[in-house]
Design goal:
Elements lengths: L4 H15 L2 H10 L6 E9 L6 H9 L3 E9 L4 E8 L6 E7 L6 H12 L22 H10 L1 H9 L5 E5 L9 H10 L12 E3 L4 E5 L4 E5 L4 E5 L2 E7 L13 H7 L7
């Protein structure tokens, strides 16, 4: 387990940028020399004992994070939880897991085989959250998973790493609204996720979110290489609750659409 939140997020960031070359461009575009504050980072896994949501969350609980919310995505067959640190300048963490038993026998077999290849103690290692894949799958397996679950296919190709980082709009000095950020991104040639609208949510649910469509990177499967969606960048604007504090949770209906940022275009 990591000894500091800073070292964990630094390692996650370096791995993420390697998978998401456009992230550096977004940084330069929006940062204007300022440091960008990360609202949250997200992870994907399967609900199998060896590497389930709780096993990933343990890395954050050990660093002082606490569970703050639970979410169900029935259509995508996912469950998720989010975690926060008492120091609210630290990024929130959103971890989801696929309900493997709800898929076809064929998909279950591919996933079980992948997970069986992971060494028993791997999940406790300091670098597990940015360790990538621990298995070999064929392009055929990837396509089979893709037919039933984009999420499962993504994990088969990319393994364990940040699925996305998120710019906190509330901490940007030069932008007051998410729509302004979206406009700037589009002018610079970025493609945005339009599922459920460019902006998901809004003041009425205390959270507005948008995201780029994932970069495309080449993955070597056991039989051949394919160029497929990798990771994306999200942007979040939080609104105050009646008590004046910024809302710190997530909105399942919006998150459901954000998941689609890794869909093939």
């Amino acid at each position: 387990m990591h000894t500091s939140i800073e070292s964990l997020f630094s390692n996650l960031w370096h791995d993420y940028v390697a998978m998401t070359p456009s992230a550096e461009k977004v940084h330069q575009l929006l940062g204007d020399g300022d440091e960008l504050i990360n609202d949250h980072v997200a992870f994907r896994t399967f609900n199998l004992e060896k590497i389930n949501l709780d096993k990933l969350a343990a890395h954050f609980l050990a660093l002082g994070y606490e569970e703050k919310g639970q979410y169900d995505f029935e259509q995508k067959k996912l469950k998720a939880r989010h975690y926060e640190h008492a120091d609210d300048t630290k990024p929130k963490v959103f971890i989801s897991e696929l309900l493997v038993e709800e898929f076809s026998e064929q998909v279950q077999q591919i996933i079980h085989k992948m997970v069986e290849a992971i060494p028993a103690d791997a999940v406790n290692k300091e670098d597990f959250l940015y360790s990538g894949t621990h298995w070999n799958v064929s392009s055929n397996d990837y396509e089979t998973l893709l037919q039933e679950s984009e999420y499962a296919a993504w994990v088969s190709a990319w393994g364990f790493r940040a699925n996305h980082f998120t710019v906190s709009l509330n901490h940007l000095k030069h932008y007051n609204m998410l729509a302004e950020v979206n406009e700037k991104l589009k002018q610079a040639g970025f493609e945005l996720n339009t599922s459920g609208g460019e902006i998901k949510g809004g003041p009425e649910v205390h959270l507005a979110q948008s995201s780029t469509m994932a970069d495309r990177m080449t993955v070597k499967f056991s039989d051949k290489a394919l160029t497929i969606p990798s990771c994306f960048y999200e942007f979040a604007e939080r609104f105050p609750l009646p008590d004046g504090k910024l809302y710190s949770g997530f909105v399942a209906a919006s998150a459901d659409k954000i998941f689609e940022s890794t869909n093939a275009k």
